[in-house]
Amino acid sequence: MAGENLRPERFFSSDPDVRTLAVEIYESIRDLPILCPHGHVDPQLFVDPLQRFGNPTELFITPDHYVFRLLFSQGIPLEALGIQPLDGNHANVEADPQKAWGLFCSNFHLFAGTPTSLWLQEELAGVFGITEKPSAENAERLYAQLSEMLQMEEYSPRRLYERFRIEALCTTDAATDNLSAHQALQNQTWAGRILPTFRPDKLTNLKNPTWRTDLSNLEVLISKEITTYPGFIQALEDRRAFFKQIGAKATDHDVLTPYTAEFTPAELEGIFQRALRGNADAGDAHRFSAGMLMEMAHMSCEDGLVMQVHAGSFRNNNRNLFEQFGSDMGADIPVQTEFTRNLAPLLQKFGNSKNLTLVLFTLDESCYGRELAPLAGHYPSVKLGPPWWFFDSLGGMQRYFEAVVETVGFYNLAGFNDDTRAFCSITARHDLWRRASANWLAGQTAKHVLGMQDARVIAQELAYGLAKRTYRL
User: Fold this and answer.
1) Are the CB atoms for 466 and 57 separated by under 8 Å?
2) CA nearest neighbour of 437 among 120, 19, 25, 3
3) 81, 196, 409, 415: which has the fewest Cβ within 10 Å?
């Protein structure tokens, strides 16, 4: 039974004194509103008040690479889960979502010990009232039960948003997105706040195989041909202004390495012209990325958008899978990352500015204590993002607090974000963070490092206040 893992005091210390303190701290933050300053939920879900989730497979499996990456690692083809290849060849794709659901349920034991197992069980119990652990035996019954519930208004995206007590949900949108869903929401009376986030990676990464196409899409949006680097920069500034007009609070930048450097306008123009001709090489791409991070920091100082930098992910490591299915298929793997030297040019120019908020994330866990905590503990512009991706787990959160707090304190942290495409997992992810925070603070209180009143205040900051201030939500 899933209920065995959903006891009220789950994730708290086995030490009874610490557990008692953790429960008290958690109870003080459990029902705070949820802020989602960084995520990947599709805004189109909320445009139509009558919108419903299609079926359990579309809700729990196909949008969530945390789920299908582990199944794939056990030899289960993505096609068997109903995931479509890019070439449109449906010959091997499971067309019946109930059969894909059955395959998922019969292999649910594979998730044991992972945060995905905890999230899924909490979603089923907390959102749908299902306390059974998925299995081959109950797969058909659970599918029928969930399918019926998903057609009810109370399980529509809008009603769940309200039920989850979400105060703001930020999406992630390409710089060339026309934001039609966001604009439609702006013109409605629904009180939900769905905000875009400006992500220019497809235009700033010259290694992007569709860079020229994406540039053409940008030209269409601004109704102007882009033939020079200054024209390119102006186009990005115009798009940022449009995003901000629609409610954006932040930008998001994915880089393999956080290398930054200053280049002359002539150097950047030369790289841009070679890119236009299709002649840019790997060195050009590396330098252009560095120059663009500098440009984005400068723009954030001007327009006030929070700048998020995610580094240390070797994207699409499984090249065959990428070519067959595209990106975001669970094959992004952490790599060793260096921040102190790489970010020095940017921080020396903008790090002391009161107009820049720079939130840093990494998949190189060793960087948190070694480099990111000292950087965030010094530069006024830098905030330290929460444990991200592979470390968005009970153990990852514990290690994070142990690694960074003594150096960075609490008030240089950016709070928590769920970073998810799986909408119904939002409450589970935030609850895990709140429980992990309460448990760690309880341990510090039991050791008399913190007083109980301080621990309660800090818990509220970690759950809500830090994210609200960092992202100006």
Assistant:
1) no
2) 25
3) 409
Domains in the chain (CATH in brackets) are 2-47+157-470 (3.20.20.140), 52-155 (1.10.2020.10)
For residue 316 the two structure tokens come to 């699409």
State pTM to two decimals.
0.96
Write the secondary structure of the chain as one string of H (helix), E (strand) and C (coil): CHHHHCCCCCCCCCCHHHHHHHHHHHHCCCCCCEEECCCCCCHHHHCCCCCCCCCHHHHHCCCCHHHHHHHHHCCCCHHHHCCCCCCCCCCCCCCCHHHHHHHHHHCHHHHCCCHHHHHHHHHHHHHHCCCCCCCCCCHHHHHHHHHHHHCCHHHCHHHHHHHCCEEEEECCEECCCCCHHHHHHHCCCCCCCEECCEECHHHHCCCCCCHHHHHHHHHHHHCCCCCCHHHHHHHHHHHHHHHHHCCCCEEEEEECCCCCCCCCHHHHHHHHHHHHCCCCCHHHHHHHHHHHHHHHHHHHHHHCCEEEEEECEECCCCHHHHHHHCCCCCCCEECCCCCHHHHHHHHHHHCCCCCCCEEEEECCCHHHHHHHHHHHCCCCCEEECCCCHHHCCHHHHHHHHHHHHHHHCCCCECCCCCCCCCHHHHHHHHHHHHHHHHHHHHHHHHCCCCCHHHHHHHHHHHHHHHHHHHCCC
Determine the Cα–Cα distance for residues 205 and 222; give it in Å rounded to an integer: 20
The letter for the amino acid at 106 is S
Long-range Cβ contacts of 312-318 (<8 Å, 24+ apart): 312/256, 312/257, 312/336, 312/337, 312/362, 312/363, 312/364, 312/367, 313/254, 313/256, 313/363, 313/389, 314/256, 315/254, 315/256
Q: For position 1, what pLDDT does the model report?
A: 36
What is the rounded distance in angstroms from the CA atom of residue 268 to the CA atom of residue 228? Answer: 10
Closest C-alpha to 358, from 305, 312, 409: 305
| 194 phi and psi angles, rounded to 5 deg | -115, 110
- CA distances to 167, 197, 251, 305, 466 from 244, rounded to whole Å, are 18, 9, 10, 8, 21
- Which of 366, 353, 238 has its CA nearest to residue 307? 353
Q: Is 360 exposed, middle or buried (0-12, 13-18, 19+ CB in 10 A)?
A: buried
Taking the chain (473 residues) in consecutive chunks of 10 residues, what is each chunk's mean pLDDT?
A: 68 97 98 97 96 94 90 95 88 92 97 94 95 96 97 97 98 98 96 98 96 98 97 98 98 97 97 97 97 98 98 92 88 94 98 97 95 98 95 96 98 97 95 98 98 98 98 98
pLDDT, position 4: 55
